[in-house]
Specification:
Layout lengths: L1 H13 L11 H8 L20 H19 L2 H35 L13 H12 L4 H8 L6 H7 L18 H22 L11 H10 L5 H7 L15 H8 L1 H21 L9 H14 L1 H23 L9 H7 L5 H8 L8
Helix pairs in contact: 4-10, 8-9, 8-11, 8-12, 8-14, 12-16, 13-14, 15-16
């Protein structure tokens, strides 16, 4: 027993009592190695990022789009876009004025194109032009084909060579080649339909001259008068100029646009059929012979050569003008007109038929 008591007393001397703390705790060792991070009253502990909710994402998207739109519509960007548009407009105007100069010099003055220039025009060309003008829209040929001939021997014997007009027949239609008549009236019929298109053009006020005179020259002379109009309508709009009151001719043409379109389209169709089948009893040959005549006619007659230029220009100007005036079309037919405007003649007919007459043009 004495030995056990001595062993216990020796262990007590070696191990300190349990209620005493060691000189260095575990927390004190960590503090000595890593300095503690403290926050003052002015600081707050950062919170973890919060996931964006669905409504927040929509707000974020709208904000991002708004910022992008603001960058695209900035003054610098708008000025750059306007400068590019002005440059393109000036280039296009220059091209049109050059085309006008080429048209005048090549078709009227220079002797290199087929046929005779204006200053050396032959009497045969003049007679052909007069005969084509008399057969305008095939009025005289169709009238002559429907009534008896006043030069018949029975009439001349009965009236002792006194001229007589039977029905509405006053003069005989000149007998020309049907291909020449068809080409002439085809171009004239197409030009006829341009009247409502020009008189209702949204940029017509930029042209300070008379549209009545311009269309009249275009209709009865050449297409050289339409090219300058296409260039002038590209000018900057004058904010101080008031819209001009439409003339009586403009009012009639725009109000009767569907009738103008149907008449012009019918003339173009009749012209094509007349060139193929017209004057079948006049020994003008079959389709192959008429095609050969057309090729030789274009290569030898300045007037026919100019008609081909007019057709090419109309193929360009028709969709251009219709595309700039789609607001004049009935809303339910805008898509159809916009699609067909590139079809020669037919696109213009459809535009005029569906022209919106309920609003002031």
């Amino acid at each position: 027993m004495a030995a056990a008591a001595s062993t216990t007393s020796s262990l007590a001397r070696i191990r300190p009592p349990l209620h005493l703390k060691p000189p260095f705790s575990h927390h004190q060792r960590l503090a000595s190695i890593r300095p503690a991070v403290t926050f003052t009253t002015a600081q707050t502990r950062p919170s973890p990022p919060r996931p964006i909710a669905v409504e927040d994402e929509s707000v974020y998207s709208r904000t991002r789009l708004a910022c992008g739109a603001g960058r695209r519509n900035s003054p610098a960007t708008a000025a750059a876009e306007k400068g590019d548009g002005d440059n393109a407009r000036r280039v296009l105007q220059s091209v049109l004025w050059v085309a006008e100069g080429v048209y005048i010099f090549w078709l009227f003055l220079l002797p290199y194109a087929p046929g005779d220039p204006v200053w050396a025009i032959s009497s045969e060309t003049v007679n052909s032009l007069v005969g084509l003008s008399l057969n305008f829209f095939f009025i005289l040929p169709l009238m002559n084909s429907g009534v008896p001939c006043t030069n018949h021997v029975a009439f001349r014997t009965l009236l002792h060579d006194v001229p007589l007009a039977v029905g509405i027949r006053l003069i005989d239609a000149p007998v020309l080649h049907p291909v020449a008549e068809g080409l002439f009236n085809f171009v004239i019929g197409w030009t006829f339909m341009f009247a409502p298109l020009l008189f209702a053009d949204s940029k017509r006020d930029r042209y300070k001259g008379s549209l009545d005179v311009l269309w009249g020259f275009q209709m009865f002379l050449t297409n050289t008068f339409l090219i300058p109009y296409m260039a002038i309508r590209l000018n900057e709009a004058d904010a101080q100029s008031a819209p001009r009151k439409p003339s009586q001719l403009a009012s009639v043409m725009t109000k009767g646009a569907p009738i103008v379109g149907l008449i012009g389209g019918a003339i173009c169709l009749i012209s094509a059929l007349w060139a193929i089948f017209g004057r079948s009893d006049g020994n003008f040959g079959d389709l192959a012979n008429r095609w050969d005549f057309l090729v030789s006619y274009l290569g030898s007659e300045r007037l026919a050569y100019a008609f081909i230029w007019d057709i090419c220009l109309y193929i360009i100007f028709q969709p251009w003008l219709i595309g700039d005036n789609l607001q004049n079309v009935q809303k339910s037919k805008v898509g159809l007109v916009n699609y067909l405007r590139f079809v020669p003649v037919l696109g213009l007919v459809v535009y005029l038929v569906y022209l919106n007459l309920d609003e002031e043009l």
